[in-house]
Amino acid sequence: MSLERFLNQAVSSWMSGEGPDSDIVLSSRIRLARNIDQYRFPLLYSNEEALEIIEIIKNRMQNLPFSKAGEMDLLIMQELQPLQKRVLVEKHLISPNLAEDANHGACLLSENEGISVMINEEDHIRIQCLFSGLQLQEALSMANEIDDWIEDYTTYAYDESIGYLTSCPTNVGTGLRASVMMHLPGLVLTQQMNRIIPAINQLGLVVRGIYGEGSEALGNIFQVSNQMTLGKSEEDIVEDLKSVVSQIVSQERSARDALFKTSNIQLEDRVYRSLGVLTNSRIIETKEAARCLSDVRLGIDMGYIKNISQNILNELMILTQPGFLQQYAGGPLRPNERDIRRATLIRERLNLEKQE
């Protein structure tokens, strides 16, 4: 598979919207952090060690004994242009940290883009598995299969008393980060998110924006993930997160029902105003586009809009990011040029959707 496919196709299979509760839970992600014993951690290793680690993981992953992953393609960060790396970050296939590595980073991506094994990021190995909807257990099972396969032929840095050793102390133990991406316009519009976020934090979880730590909740999309990796089993971490997410899903449904009962015409007006902006704007910035797309997706979920696919939010939230816009344009664009191209792309895509 070519690099161009990863760069040009906006929607990965895990964004299909076919998983459980996918009207609210856009995706589930499991990430395992691992390091290879007898090698210094990425902060201290040599160029030779970094290359050896890439070769070790490449050999293991390209000979996976099961077909779930499909073909695995190796991408060397040093060989990619900054714009290409930015697109991969926008698709959630690599982390911003890996994209910034100029010398040592690499990534193995599966054909369906549901599996990403980042090499020489903060740790030697970061196994990431992505599934549509609320499928944390399924993502954990896949990640564990890959983890076991690598460990059968490689010795991990591990301590019997505390677990897997990682570059950052916050990942020591299981090395597990479990997260879900959620679309929560109902809770935002009913002004409940400011109350819910502190309550979630008290449970040892954290709420972040669409691209993780330090990012904004564009389009009312939030990531909820665990903070603790030490002192709990992987299964307990995932089960605790799933339980909280299920409660948030229930609260979001209740908020939508309340809006429908108390502010139906106002909500319908908001949805169609946003659709009008998207289908008629000639210039639109990222934040406004994200807000309007969120409104349209809510309108689709609540039955106001019937001739546009639910997956339009997933697709356009990626297509309208700065990296993707410039990838389609074939080169760098000034901010104003991006805003014009973003508006054009949205209009064309929505018109095409209506014709299908």
What does this protein look like?
By secondary structure, this protein is an alpha+beta fold. It folds into 2 domains: about 1-15 and about 30-170, Creatine Kinase, Chain A, domain 2; about 255-355, no CATH class. It contains 13 helices and 10 strands. The chain has helices spanning about 5-10, 45-60, 80-90, 95-100, 135-150, 185-190, 195-200, 235-260, 265-280, 285-300, 310-320, 320-330, 335-355; strands at about 25-35, 70-75, 105-110, 115-120, 125-130, 160, 165, 175-185, 205-210, 220-225. It has an 8-stranded antiparallel β-sheet with strand order 2-3-4-5-1-8-10-9, with helices on one face. Helix 10 (about 285-300) runs antiparallel to helix 11. The longest helix has 29 residues, at about 235-260. The chain is globular.
